[in-house]
Specification:
By secondary structure, the chain is mainly alpha-helical. It is about 70% helix and about 0% strand. The protein has a single domain (about 20-350), classed as Hydantoin permease.
Amino acid sequence: MKKANLKLRFPPEWGIEPVLKDAKMLRGVDTFVLWFSVGIGLLVIQAGAFLTLPLELGGFGLSLPTAFLISLAGSFIGSIVLSLAGIIGSREGVTSMVSLRPAFGLSGSYFLSFLNIILCIGWTIFEIVIMGEAATTISGNFIGTFTKYMWFVFFALLAFFMASSGPLTVVRQWLEKFAVWLALGGAILVTYNIFHEISTTALIRNAPQSVQFSSILLALDLVIAMPVSWLPLISDYNRFVRKERESFFGTLLGYTTANTWFYFLGAMLAVAYPKQTITYSMAILPLGLFGLFLILADEPDNAFADIYSATLSIQNILPGKKQRRIALIIALLSLLIACLIPIVQYENFLLLIGASFVPVFGVIFSDYFLKNKGNYSEEQLYPVNPCINWRAIIAWAIGFLTYYYFAYINIIFAATFPSLIVAFGLYTILSSLKGGKNKT
């Protein structure tokens, strides 16, 4: 008699090697669902609350109409940049970190991979915390103070299993069949109720304050920072998209729609309940717990994406390591830190992400679309010898300083585009000079 085989069977791993044309299975609608789903999130609502929170509570104090316009403009601008980055992954069939090799050199991509690992782990931590807090709001403290930590463990393991299943399985079998529909229903329910819950008193309290123009620009950057935060991850998923056109428009429409909606949802919740957490604010709405549950059902895909991309970043440095073992280590490490760190300084974390990777892709856009005419050779993507292109590093560093200057020192423009343009322009100039790459 044969013994029952209880061993889990995951789909085959797809590492950092190029995705062949026959394996590119995602259509435009799949891409829309993926990035619409990723754009849906409790952390997005949390960030949106900053738009209308009063100045004395650490927000920007914007009116609701202004918050909506900022949400729409920032989402569209950031999603355009994100969609352009996704074209590289779709056309070349490579991961995000591999796509950085031609411009920054193999060793240069290691440095950026290390930075991306830190950022992805940070995102995973925040996701575990907010999912755990939301689940605790729904379930109540049925095992006392340990309830929240039980949920932390649950969501960390769930994200690990999703990362082990890979993007194609998550998109086709989870998002399209279940999660995105649940989240869509929850979002409609919460939006409908919050429109009816915002009282005249709340609207008066949200009357336009004396808000400086610099605050509006910083609020715009806060919205742009969310799609921009996916720049170092997008090709990890869009490499499976069949056509560049489907990659671009699926990403643009999906992420712009979801990000605008959920930023504004957070802004409305902050107007109605300015001194409450967003999960509690949603819970006290009519049928709010049910709406929160439906949105929560779609949240683990964000943690999955962070763990999966952190895994690919490590494989960019150590290509021989197994994905699932790396993913398990990342999930457990994130879980441990989530149990120890409070969810604070979230706004600064978003701006840090923007400061780090906006100029990186200013360099990449110049190198790929201008210098290499939209095509990388296999030798460029998979070089044998380690090297660093110091011209790219210099352009990135000055772009980073540009972001910091406009975001923290002299806020006369939104920082994202000056940073992107400076890195793009400087690298274009430096790469036109004679001389090869500096190798180390």
